[in-house]
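User: hey, got a sec? need GntR family transcriptional regulator folded
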Amino acid sequence: MFELNTNSETPLYLQIVEQTKLAIAKGYFSNGDKFPSVRELSRKLLINQATVSKAFKELDTQGIIETKAGIGTFICFDDEKINDRVDEINKKLQDDLIEARYLGISLDEVIKMYERAGDYNDR
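Assistant: Yep! Here you go:
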């Protein structure tokens, strides 16, 4: 499920974050599902535990996972944090639409661009 690119400019921990989000979007993980531990994931990906730990901290900050001491790590959507992220995305979309209008791109063209970008099943 996780395929890290060591040649990418994107740090490994952020690749883990993004690929976790993609796995959720594709339906591999749902709210409440058990998530691999830092140790398990670092062993599977053959990377330092500190890197995976950094990814877990970011996933927790974004309201995607929760680690319960002695029990494990789970996909656990924090509605408040998720709503904050939705607000951020909404602002970005507004900025993108203003830029598109400035560049003369029609709303239909923007919708087609988002549809192409949203075809994450091919990734």
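Quick note: The chain has a mean pLDDT of 91. Let me know if you need anything else on GntR family transcriptional regulator.
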